[in-house]
């Protein structure tokens, strides 16, 4: 049994699913997903004092079949935006976001995620 955190590859206690830091980050993410912009959300995550490289890994490690958390957040924001504009098309999934991110040349206008 591995004691590696699946989100940040850091150490976790063997009885925990994810490490303490990721738990903290995840709570913030869940509470604010879809209501906060990405840069605002990043500020909240950084405000925890958790090292940025850990936050980066937390957000960018791909989760099985779902894309990374960052993809999921981006998909959530995109869907909210589409809803706000009255677009009732198929919801964008984290997987779609991952595809776009990995093939940015295939779409006409893509802005880099804010940093
Ligand atoms: Zn972790």
Protein model, in words:
By secondary structure, this protein is mainly alpha-helical. The chain has one domain. The chain is 49% helix and 3% strand. The chain has 5 helices and 2 strands, in the order H-H-H-E-E-H-H. It has helices spanning 20-32, 38-46, 52-60, 69-84, 94-102, and strands at residues 62-63, 67-68. Strands 1-2 form a two-stranded antiparallel sheet. A hairpin with a 3-residue loop joins strand 1 and strand 2. Helix 4 (69-84) crosses helix 5 (94-102). Zinc ion binds at residues 5, 7-8, 10, 18-19, 21-22. The site of zinc ion (ZN) has 8 residues, from helix 1.
Key attributes of the depicted protein:
mainly alpha; 5 helices; 2 strands; 3% strand; globular; binds zinc ion
Chart the SSEs and their pairings:
Elements (H helix, E strand, L loop, with lengths): L19 H13 L5 H9 L5 H9 L1 E2 L3 E2 H16 L9 H9 L13
Antiparallel strand pairs: 1-2
The structure holds zinc ion.
Zinc ion binds next to helix 1.
What is this structure, in a nutshell?
By secondary structure, the protein is mainly α. It has helices spanning 20-32, 38-46, 52-60, 69-84, 94-102; strands spanning 62-63, 67-68. Helices cover 49% and strands 3% of the residues.
């Amino acid at each position: 049994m591995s004691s590696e955190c699946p989100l940040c590859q850091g150490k976790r206690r063997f009885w925990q699913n994810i490490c303490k830091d990721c738990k903290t980050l995840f709570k913030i993410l869940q509470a604010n997903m879809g209501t906060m912009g990405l840069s605002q959300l990043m500020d909240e995550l950084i405000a925890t004092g958790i090292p940025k490289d850990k936050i980066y890994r937390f957000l960018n490690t791909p989760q099985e079949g779902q894309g990374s958390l960052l993809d999921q957040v981006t998909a959530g924001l995109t869907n909210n935006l589409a809803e706000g504009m009255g677009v009732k098309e198929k919801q964008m999934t984290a997987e779609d976001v991952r595809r776009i991110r990995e093939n940015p040349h295939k779409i006409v206008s893509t802005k880099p995620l804010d940093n």
